[in-house]
């Protein structure tokens, strides 16, 4: 609602929030590929080690979707609206752009903005515990650096975030979200 209020206040100027390009198949495909890359980097390569040293990520707030298609589908819709679109619109399209402009609208200010917001994004997910905050902060770093490189294509970030969360939610629904962690734990134990 905050994001929509800000958009309304701008006279519905979508470009002011990073939507300067039309959405096309290439943007959607890039978002999907980037989401898979982030999943491999964060969830498969880094997250197991975070959990070894800092504790398991707390996903108790969405446990009800395990095996329950109705709950999964409702959360899936909510996630695309509020997390994929809402968070990227607010964090990237509003906060990141305005913070970069505040610091001089240079490449360096955009870089600083990306780093600050990555930390903020991670901390805003503190309900997932320390491992969750770090994992989300690292994913946020990739999201925000993507926007730093594609400043007029916030849709790329929305699709990347949406597909990334879709992968995670689907694995939780199928009760397969721990499969990669368990695999890494077995490798380490050998």
Set down the secondary structure blueprint.
Layout: H1 2-9, H2 25-54, H3 69-102, H4 107-123, H5 129-149, H6 154-173, H7 179-189
SS-based structural class? mainly alpha
Termini separation comes to 50 Å
Sheet-strand content, in percent, reads under 5%
Mean pLDDT: 92
Main pleated sheet: none
Q: Write the element-wise H/E pattern from the N-terminal end onward.
A: HHHHHHH
Helical amount among residues, as a percent range? over 70%
Rg on CA atoms, Å: 17 Å
Which spans of ≥5 residues are poorly predicted at pLDDT below 50?
none
Plain-language structure description:
With 190 residues, the protein is an all-alpha fold. The protein is built from seven helices and no strands. The model has no long low-confidence stretch (mean pLDDT 92). The chain has helices at residues 2-9, 25-54, 69-102, 107-123, 129-149, 154-173, 179-189.
